Each structure stands twice: as C-alpha cells, then as structure tokens.
Amino acid sequence: MAEPPPDAFIACPRTRALWDADPEIADLIAKEERYECDTIRLIPSENYASMAVLAATGSIFANKYSEGYASKRYYEGQIYVDQVEKLAIARACALFGAAHANVQPYSGSPANMAACFAVLKPNDTVMGLALPFGGHLTHGWNVNFSGILYRAVQYELDPQTHRIDMDKVRDAARRERPKAIFCGGTAYPRLWDFAAFRSIADEVGAVLIADIAHIAGLVAAGAHPSPVPHAQIVTTTTHKTLRGPRGAMILCTEELAKAVDRAVFPTLQGGPHNHTTAAIAVALKEAATPEFRAYGHHVVANAKALAAALAARGYRLVSGGTDNHLLLIDLSDRPYTGKDGAQALSRAGLVGNYNTVPFDTRKPFNPSGIRLGTPAVTSRGMKEEHMEAIAAWIDAVLSNIGDAERIAAIKEEVREFCGGFPTPGVLIGNDWSPLP
Ligand code: DSN
Any idea which residues carry the catalytic annotation? Predict the structure, then answer.
C-alpha cells in the first residue's frame, strides 16, 4: 500500500501531480529516494545526477519528435530542440576537445553499435578486451551483436599483473589484422594507454574506438588521460562518472563525422530522446566547472583510499589496487563467492556488484569478485577518511556473512552514517543541496 506522500513531493507540482495520478509509482519513487539516501552506493557505473539534470530529463522535450539533425529534421517545430542539440554538441566538443560529437545514441551499447556500423562491414574483424577480463559485451563478446555480425578477436590480461600487456595486444593485432580495435572496459582498474593502442591500430590499419563510458567524468576532470587526441572514435555513456542522464555520446574526428552521424540516424535509431539531450547539455555544463574537476580527482583519491584500506585488511585486489574509480576484490581464495559477498553487503546497505575476476574459475553468474567504485559516494561528499569506515564495514560483513543479526546492525550504522551526507537530486531525505 502506498504511504502518504512525503512533504517534499507535495511541494513540487510535478511529483504532486504524479502522486495524484499514480500513487503506487509515486510511492515507489519515494521509496527508491529513501533507499538511495540510506545506503552506500558502490556500483562503479552508478552515480547521483543533480537536480538540474533530473529536471531537464523530466522536461517536456520528451514530447517532441525530431528525426535527423539540427536544421535537417523530418518534423517541423524544432526551434528549441535544434538549439538544445547544438548546445549539447558544442559543450561536448569543448569539454573533450573533440572535432565532432553526436549526442543522440540512446545508451552505451547503441553508441558502440553505431561506432561499429560507421567503420566496419559485416564479417570484418573487430578486437576488444574480453568481457570476463573487464571488457564489455559490445567489444566483440560472442553473444552480442559485436561477436555475431563481426569476426571478433579478444585480448586478455596478463596472468601475473592483471594489466593489459601491450606487446601481446600488438602481436594479436599483427596476427588478426582487425579493422577496428576497442579499448576501454567496465572492470579494469588501471589507466588506459590510448597512445599505445593508437600506434598498434595505425600499424595494422585499424580504427581505434575508445569506450570511455566508465571514465568519461575522470577524463573531463583531468583525472585520467584523454583518448581524444588518439582514438578516431570515442564512445561514452553520460550517466556514470560524467554524472548526467542515462544516455550516450560519440566523439570523433572530422573525417568520420558523416559516417558516425549516418550510423546513428537513420541506420540504427529513429527520433532522438530530446529530454535526454537537454539533460546531457546540463551535465556537460556542470562537468566544465572547477568543482567537477575537483570531484573527478576526489573520485580517484577515494578509490585509492578504499583499495588501500581493504588491502590492509587482507583482501586481494585485482592488479593490486586502482588508478581510477573502481576496484575488484578477488575472493578466489575464500570459501564464499563474489555473489555471496555482494548479496551480504547489499543486505547491510553497502551496494556493489558481483563480477568475474581475471582467470576466474567460477561461473560468470556466481563469480569470484566484487566490483566496487567511488563515483556515487564522492558525489555525496565522502572523503578519504570515510573510505576507512566503509572498508571496515565491508570487512565486518564479509567476515560475518551468515550472521543476520550482525548484518542488520551494520545496516543501521550505515543508515545513520549516510544521514551525514546530502544526497544530490533527491526530493526527500534531505534538501535541495547543491552537489559537493
Ligand atoms: N552496465 C555497465 C556497468 O555496470 O559497467 C556496463 O554496461
């Protein structure tokens, strides 16, 4: 049963209208807000979008159809939509130093598909980091379009260092002659050497596609080297470290601009989600501020602090630590799996996700790793000293996995701790605080 609406929902005309029209959904939104306030969110691909980004996402730009691109649309009435899309493109190009941007991809997978359609023909060879080693489905994994439409070749991590061995990537590229090489991933805690990837791509005549979905905010903040001078195509989602709405963008060279635009529309997509484009523009404006630069550097400092605090408690980390926003706890030597661990942590209000580790001997649906990241906790203003407390709770949960009472007590401690940090974007629980 729906509870009475929180005061903050009554004060806002849009949530008030939602409560009147559909109290069940409104109630679930209020509950999710409470949940996002009361838990420590450690999934590295998640964040808190600002109130401004959410306002644009929920705006009436969702009402409008606008197939095509600014000044070349298939529908009338684009006076304001064109201005929004042009602003988003200009801000993307300025922030990342790119020659061209397409802000219409619906999300990361469609963006990668468009990148492939722009430069590959069916059965061409594509190369990327294998999914179980921290790559992404769309980088050539066999069940995905990228492994079905193309001849996919996958590189792995070095068994000792758990880092990418660029000599092995070069050897594989020389042998397999890919037409496109993906770099970037979802669970790689180290820096990407974009220049080295480009030199390999040039040597074999491939296009380099850098998927920076996870690290786009770090790149914008100067906390990770930029792929833009190296990769001919850069894809990214906009909702992870970049802290925008759920969406995506493709940046590319002038030479590939037409092919990329054509791949997005009309090859793969219809009408762009203009409300998302508006919110991407807002997020890009936020990301160009000194505050966001500081945020990006703090995300990395927090991840390093969390990694060090966990290592000090005896946890093995993939590659021994992190250079970016994420880390992977390797539980191969423990009697419980990554899934057991992630589920126990979640019961304590510490929300991460189970993940494969390199050379995992367990199955992907019940693997040996837990993936954690600091983008969301950093958006709440947590600092290095708070990572020590989070590591202590993680250790307490994993050391007491079957102890429901202890885990319930930790959940309460976590909830109380969370009350000390504003939650960006939520209406209830605290206030309309600006992002730290
Ligand atoms: N789902 C994203 C992640 O969590 O990394 C990748 O697509």
Answer: 65, 67, 211, 237, 240, 246
